[in-house]
Design brief:
alpha/beta
Length: 256
Amino acid sequence: MKVAVSGKGGSGKTTVSGTLARSFAVEGCDVLAIDDDENPNLALTLGIPRERDVAPIPGDLLKRVETADGETELELAKTPGVIIDDYGVEAPDGIRLLKMGEVEHAGSGCMCRAHSTAREVLSEVVEDREEVTVMDMVAGVEHLGRGTAKDVDTLLVVVEPYYKSLETGRRTRDLADELDIPDVRVVANKVRDDHDREAIEEFCAENDLEIAATVPFDDAIRHADQEGAAPIDQDPDAPGVRAIRELADDLLETHT
C-alpha cells in the first residue's frame, strides 16, 4: 500500500503522515516514510529526537541515458533498495525514513533538481517495494503538477474547516484525477465542534469529495508539537491520535 498525504500548509498533513506511519508499524507492517516537504518535519513527528540530524538524500542521483530512439531521459543512478539502504534513517517501531531535500540557504535557487530526483525515487520506490509507504508531500498542489504522487494507491488530502483549506482540497482532487490516482479522500482535521464538522461535510458533499476520517482538534497533539515529541508517544489514546489510528486500520482493511 502506497499512501501520499497532501494539504495546505498548516493543515496538519505532517501530523497525519507521521501518526499514520507509526500506526501501520505498530500493526506489524514494514513501513517506509518519505518526507518530500521542502520544510521537512516528518522525522520529529515519527519520534526521531530533534537533536538527531537527518540528512537529505543527495540531489545528484539522476543520470541521463539515451533511449533506443535517440532521445534522452533521466533515470536513477542507484536502485531504490540501495538508496534506502544508503540514505534511509531508522525511526521508532522499525520505520525507515527518507528525507528528499530542504532549502538550506536564502538565495540558494530553486529546488528543481531535488524535486526531479524525488519524483524518480518515489516512482521507482512505489513501483518496486513491498512495504507500506507513507509520503508527506510538499504543501499545496505543486507536487501534483510535477506528478510526484502519480503512482500511489491512495492520496489523502488534509483539510481544516476553512474555505481556503477546503478549496485547496478540491483543487488537489481535480489534479489527482488527471493523474488517475485511484483513491482520493479527505481527512477533516482540527474539527472543534458540530459547526466545523457541518462546514466540511457540506463543502465535500457539494464538491463530490469523500471524507476518509474526521480528526478532532486535540490539545495533546499541540502539546506534542510544543515538546518536540511524536503525538503517538505523547498520548497514544488522545482523541486525535485515535482517529488517525482508526484511519490506518481502515486503509489496511481496504488494501489487504
